[in-house]
């Protein structure tokens, strides 16, 4: 059996520079096909998984913080569903519309 980290584990190591935070052990997506969260036509299904996740708040805060504190490309290229938010929703949080005309 291959015990090398793969997929989600590798991503967490890249994102967090080591082992993923302990709350990740409770992630509802840990046994879910990761492509679900990066396929635009499946956004609603991915959000449904997040809606049932016991660590949604931790995940959302972590992702938004990571994007906010990293290089601009992290925010500008936010993609996929993380913490119950699509990439477009996270970009709107990072770059809120300045007036009502921008909301449309
Ligand atoms: S909120 Fe969504 S992306 Fe975050 S750990 Fe839970 S299921 Fe995974």
From TrEMBL:
A Pfam family annotated for this UniProt entry: Whib
Keywords: 4Fe-4S, Disulfide bond, DNA-binding, Iron, Iron-sulfur, Metal-binding, Transcription, Transcription regulation
Cofactor: [4Fe-4S] cluster
A cellular component annotation (GO) from this entry: cytoplasm
Alphabetical list of InterPro entries matching this protein: 4FE4S_WBL (IPR034768), Whib (IPR003482)
Cellular compartment(s): Cytoplasm
Lineage top rank: taxon: Bacteria
Single annotated GO MF: 4 iron, 4 sulfur cluster binding
Domain 4Fe-4S Wbl-type: 28-92
Gene Ontology biological process terms in this record: cell redox homeostasis; negative regulation of DNA-templated transcription
Family, similarity comment: Belongs to the WhiB family.
Official protein name in the record: WhiB family transcriptional regulator, redox-sensing transcriptional regulator
UniProt organism field: Lentzea albida
Lineage: Bacteria, Bacillati, Actinomycetota, Actinomycetes, Pseudonocardiales
